[in-house]
From TrEMBL:
It comes from the Bacteria. This is Ring-1,2-phenylacetyl-CoA epoxidase subunit PaaB. NCBIfam families: PA_CoA_Oxy2 (TIGR02157). It holds the Pfam family PaaB. InterPro entries: PaaB, PaaB_sf.
Length: 102
């Protein structure tokens, strides 16, 4: 059950997306959503819901309405412009024979 399900609507409180950075990871990972009156309340609720076993070292909460994302349906046209930049790929550069990995 997600934090949003537990909130039960919460009288029109905004929805927040929760990201946690684990002890071993370098990146914040989306772990769920919850409703809260404000960002500070969302941060405390996220800590209680998503880091009960001390698995996090950092939490981000972001209002869901403030998240802008690309659509998987637009994957090809959205990411296609980077495909024609051959200098971004290691095949463009000569690799010395004594270099085992890039």
């Amino acid at each position: 059950m997600s934090g949003a399900d537990r909130a039960g609507g919460c009288g029109g409180w905004p929805l927040f997306e929760v990201f946690v950075r684990g002890k071993r990871g370098l990146n914040h990972v989306h772990v769920g959503s919850l409703h809260a009156a404000d960002a500070e309340m969302a941060l405390h609720a996220a800590r209680n819901l998503y880091t009960r076993r001390n698995e996090g070292v950092s939490i981000w909460v972001v209002r869901a309405q403030d998240v802008t994302a690309s659509s998987p349906d637009e994957k090809d046209p959205f990411f296609a412009p980077s495909g024609d930049k051959v200098y971004r790929h290691p095949t463009f550069y000569p690799v010395p024979d004594d270099v085992p990995n890039i």
